[in-house]
Amino acid sequence: PVLVVDFGAQYAQLIARRVREARVYSELVPHSMPVDEMLAKDPKAIILSGGPASVYEPGAPQIDPKIFSAGVPVLGICYGFQVMAHELGGTVDKAAQGEYGKTEASIDRADGVLDGSPADQSTWMSHGVAVESAPEGFEVLAHTQGAPVAAMQDPSRGLYGVQWHPEVKHTPLGQNLIETFLHRCAGLPDDWDASGIIEDQVAKIRAKVGDAQVICGLSGGVDSAVAAALVHKAIGEQLTCVFVDHGLLRKGEVEQVKHDFVAATGIKLIAVDAADDFLEALKGAKEPEHKRKIIGEKFIRTFEKAQAQVIEEAGAQGKEVKFLVQGTLYPDVVESGGGDGAANIKSHHNVGGLPKDITFELIEPLRTLFKDEVRAIGTELGLPDEIVWRQPFPGPGLGIRIIGEITKERLDLLREADAIAREELSKAGLDRDIWQCPVVLLADVHSVGVQGDERTYGSPIILRPVSSEDAMTADWSRVPYDVLAAISTRITNECPGINRVALDCTSKPPATIEWE
Ligand code: XMP
């Protein structure tokens, strides 16, 4: 793989994605991983990410300089570039002028990692510290007003560095630079793609499963559907999907899964109606992580109970169901703190919320993948667009979109409001522009309204349409006013108890996409 060493940047994952877009497999590792351990992964190239620290401050994240003499090509980006300069004897100091955002870089030598670059490049920067002079043996490739050395290289040692962020779209030639580094400087072929992932995973799943029975929890979302289709390709009839209706789904979803998915894939499906069970377990729970734990736990227990039925229907008496398929994606792993060193922001139920005494072994064939890769695989596996292009919906469903205690009445109310918002957004042709649009019920908040000359004291609904590439960062979608007006009018007219509709205009960060 290509290793992306994470120095605590919000961009490290983005770098890993860009490498995959260049059709080269990449993995994130924390900077705290010993260099020997990194090298044991036999990396073909290493990219050092940016980070929030200043290299010369005490406690700033370091890396063993051995990494620069291991014979593996290294590209340092922003903080990673400064670490490289600092460790190898260059001078790094507070910049005479910090540069944040769009910055013009003057290219002094369009060579090596900047081969073919125009004389000036528009770049995106974020630094208050600059490399004043390059280490011995390096040639300076570019400078900006605030960075005397904005890019440097020593091709004889395979070392390259840039002050700017080539991974963000605001650096128009950024992807070019990453591809030049990977394909030309490091000589890596561009052969990583959806078919390759499928073949690789099919072989791995077969080897792992043998002749055991496998179940997969289907949520109706893209991830579990693609995971199921992939496992089905590998082991066919040994797979049974279990669809738990936990009562936290959206309008029409149960039918959609029961009919559309089965029609598209021919996979065996057992549907379990556990709505009352979940509601009972969730009684009194208000705190988001508490709700997630309850839902995660109940999910697994429901699967365990479904085992007997799975075995009976598979005609595999005497055998046990040994494996559980989960549609966990790479961002889930990283955000749940599984990406080592990353903070636990929310324990997504399909990762952190699993009970410890789980009796299944997990199969997570999408664990290293990003959403766009999962969609490409889904299409390659023959899933229809309605499944592949469904907007993301969290496993705990509407349960984490009712702020406050979950009751049947509140669920029904939110289900209706959500259906209206989805219908109007679809009608306006916005489905693919919007990454997802959580509709949130602030159940314990009340405000005064007036409807039909009567005072009302109802709850507000929040619309949270966002645009995003991978849910790691997001911006609020600029939905046209008349579409918002149509949604607002319909919700207040058709959902008794709702007297206010508000728009959430916060990006992520600082907010998350969901309210819980
Ligand atoms: P946040 O709210 O963390 O959401 O910005 C990022 C993405 O993850 C989804 N999400 C979840 N998915 N279980 C899931 O399966 C969860 O507990 C969960 N919480 C958030 C969210 O819808 C968004 O796509």
TrEMBL record:
PROSITE patterns: GATASE_TYPE_1, GMPS_ATP_PPASE. Its EC number is 6.3.5.2. NCBIfam families: guaA_Cterm (TIGR00884), guaA_Nterm (TIGR00888), PRK00074.1 (NF000848). CDD domains: GATase1_GMP_Synthase, GMP_synthase_C. It holds the Pfam family NAD_synthase. One of its GO terms (molecular function) is GMP synthase activity. This is GMP synthase [glutamine-hydrolyzing]. Residues 192-390 form the GMPS ATP-PPase domain. The gene is guaA. InterPro entries: Class_I_gatase-like, GATASE, GMP_synth_C, GMP_synth_GATase, GMP_synthase, GMPS_ATP_PPase_dom, NAD/GMP_synthase, Rossmann-like_a/b/a_fold. Catalyzes the synthesis of GMP from XMP. Homodimer. It comes from the Bacteria. Keywords: ATP-binding, Glutamine amidotransferase, GMP biosynthesis, Ligase, Nucleotide-binding, Purine biosynthesis. PANTHER family: GMP SYNTHASE [GLUTAMINE-HYDROLYZING], GMP SYNTHASE-RELATED. Pathway: Purine metabolism; GMP biosynthesis; GMP from XMP (L-Gln route): step 1/1. It comes from Bifidobacterium subtile. It is an enzyme of class 6 (ligase). GO terms for cellular component: cytosol. The active site is at C78 (nucleophile), H165, E167. It catalyses: XMP + L-glutamine + ATP + H2O = GMP + L-glutamate + AMP + diphosphate + 2 H(+). ATP binds at S219, G220, G221, V222, D223, S224, A225.
